[in-house]
Amino acid sequence: MTWSQADFIMLRQRVFTALIMAALFCAAIAYFPLPLLAVLLAILVGLGAWEWSRLSGWEHTLARALYVLVILAALGIIYVYCQLGGIPPRDEVQPLLGLACLWWAFALLWVKSFPHSAVFWRSMGMRSAMGALILVPGWMSSVYLLSFTDGEILMVAMVLVTATADIGAYFTGRRFGKHKLAVSVSPSKTWEGFWGGLAACGLLALILWILLPGHVAHIALASVLLITIMTALASVIGDLTVSMVKRESGVKDSGSLLPGHGGVLDRLDSLCGAAPVFALGVLLVDW
User: Is-contact 35 85, C-beta < 8 A?
Assistant: First the structure.
């Protein structure tokens, strides 16, 4: 597929915004303590919840604000229950991570059967619940990752996997894409792009394994590869799930806060899908 001038302008805008977000993200990870990072992530989730409230069908400003407050209250309850500000007990966190991964398995079934699946989740109540199931576990998993030894490295690695899957899919799909991945959900995505993204993540897994800190040298390459690929798959499901709801709601982007990217939710969707899978994988390999 040839590139037009508009494509290059859009790509330049996306790259510029992405570089700014990456710089802010790395600075926050490097210098802020865990409680402050949890608050900053909660603010991002709150912005995502505000955008999701519109996708859910809430029109009145007060109703949308109330939805955001409910989501933030859920984050506070999870923070206390799982002791995310200290050393979270594995027995408290692991079942929640498992349930989050199970939710994304259900979401995949809905994506595959869209638009017929919309009959199950079209109502405002179901779409509101979907927003909670996307945003709350994503936040919990991210804060939990930061509580690990070398949690900052893990968080960066998770974001890198998600970004690599997206970038690999974008360029491979632009160059070779012919067969649609989910035409009723996201017509621009192709199977060629999907496999290109996974291949890029496979290469990234090898690099991450080589760079593993000494105290986790016992983790095998196969484990790193499996976690990376499953995380990449979950990021795609997260993206497609939000795209599915946007299509049902008749909107292209969740917002316009991030030039070239859309809204905050348009950046959180993949990360919210990836975070529970990555966190559970890291937990299971005894990081």
Answer: yes
